[in-house]
Task: structure prediction
Amino acid sequence: MEQRWPATLWIVRHGQSAGNVARDAADAAGLGRIDIADRDMDVPLSDLGHEQARALGRWFANLPGDERPKTLMASPYLRAVQTSQDIRAEGGLSAERFCIDERLREKEFGVLDRLTRVGIEAQFPDQAEARRLLGKFYHRPPGGESWCDVILRLRSLLDTISLHHGGDRVLIVAHQVVVLCLRYLLESLTEAEILAIDKQADIANCGVTEYRFDPSCGPDGGLKLTRYNFTAPLERQAAPVTAAPDANVAAR
Result:
């Protein structure tokens, strides 16, 4: 029977971004709005973010050629694209198959974009209350997405991967919510289970989540989690590990 899933699937959160830094500054000052001049999709990596991405690229490059990623799929957001470019520049891929996929984009925050928790409470108290009642898994801010909306587009992405990348080694570079929602899908988790994982800790910038194909998982085999939020690639390269939430964490 033909293998439907990749031999290895890595899912990586982008390196530290300028938005992460700006969000920390806004929270520290008790501000309602995060000071970012660019659109969220145009926010670049910080200098530290580039350092983290290059360290991860060197870690992949040190793997044997037949174990390194062959296909890299990235969110179209600049911070994810730059992370991918740094990984490639360090020799982290065994082949040059690189594509941007809009289904991997960050969760869209609508009217809550760039607001801190203080800002949401002040400007949109009705949305703050709706989120408390519904929970972030189902709450969809006006013009934005719920986690369920993200999951819907990721179902399509996984269909594409299973159709076209059976036996491949695939690296995905995206965002914290995307990493968590892919875990929800790949492991058939419940709302309570994935939110409990989310509550434990933020995913580190350039943290690695890894799945390997296991023929014993189900009748046709499946992907089994082998690593989650793995930061040793950064630590081995002496790159600082950060886990700052994204700029829109209050709406995440």
User: Anything to note?
Assistant: The chain has a mean pLDDT of 91. The chain is about 40% helix and 15% strand. The two ends are 40 Å apart (CA to CA). The beta strands are 8-13, 71-74, 97-100, 169-174, 208-214, 222-230.
